[in-house]
Design a protein that fits this description.
Number of helices: 7
Number of strands: 5
Strand order of the largest sheet: 2-1-3-4-5
Largest sheet: 5 strands, parallel
Shape: globular
Structural class: alpha/beta
Radius of gyration: 20 Å
Length: 176
C-alpha cells in the first residue's frame, strides 16, 4: 500500500524537492527559449503550421524574436545559398552566449535536392556555423519540429554551467 501511495505523490516530503542550483537554472533556460527564425524556402512555410493553433510551438516556451541579440537559438529553415551564408554567419556571431542552432529540412542539413547540380547552394549550414539539432525531412512535418525542440531542451538541461566556467578559467591559465 505504501508503494502505491508513493507513485501517486513522488514528492511527498513536505513540499521539498532536492536538486542543485545548476539544475534549476538549466530547467529555466530550457523552458523559456527565444528564437530567431531564418526562413528561406519550403520549410519556412511548413513552420507556419507549427506556429498555428493546432501544433502551438509556443507551448514549449519559445518566443520569436526579430533581433539576434535577444535570441537564444536560431532556426535555419530552407535552402541556404552561398550569398545567404555570410548573413547567417553574421547573425550567429551577433547572438549572445549560450547560443544554439537548429537546422531544419534536407536543404539546410545537406543541400537537399539541389546539392548536386546547384553551384550556388551551400552543402549544409554546418559548414559555416555549428549545429546543435538537425530536423530531417523535405519539408519536415510539424511533429518533427516538436521532436527537435524537445531534443534542444534536453541538451540545455544537461549542460554544465559552473563547471564550464571553471574549465575555461583553467584553460586560460594554462595558455599563459
Amino acid at each position: 500500500m505504501g508503494l502505491l501511495n508513493k507513485l501517486d505523490d513522488p514528492y511527498d516530503g513536505g513540499g521539498i524537492v532536492l536538486g542543485t542550483v545548476e539544475d534549476l537554472l538549466n530547467w529555466g533556460r530550457s523552458k523559456s527559449n527565444w528564437y530567431l527564425h531564418f526562413g528561406l524556402a519550403c520549410c519556412a512555410i511548413e513552420f507556419m503550421a507549427m506556429n498555428a493553433s493546432h501544433f502551438d510551438f509556443m507551448r514549449f516556451g519559445t518566443i520569436p524574436r526579430t533581433s539576434p541579440r535577444q535570441a537564444d537559438f536560431i532556426m535555419i529553415t530552407g535552402t541556404v545559398t552561398l550569398k545567404m551564408a555570410d548573413r547567417i554567419k553574421i547573425l550567429y556571431e551577433q547572438m549572445s552566449e549560450p547560443k544554439y542552432v537548429i537546422s531544419v529540412g534536407s536543404c539546410s542539413n545537406c543541400g537537399g535536392p539541389y546539392w548536386e547540380h546547384g553551384y550556388h547552394v551551400l552543402k549544409g549550414v554546418d559548414k559555416i556555423i555549428p549545429v546543435d539539432v538537425y530536423i530531417p525531412g523535405c519539408p519536415p512535418r510539424p511533429e518533427a519540429f516538436e521532436e527537435g525542440m524537445i531534443k534542444l531542451q534536453e541538451k540545455i538541461n544537461k549542460q554544465a554551467i559552473f563547471n564550464k566556467r571553471k574549465k575555461l578559467n583553467s584553460e586560460n591559465e594554462e595558455s599563459k
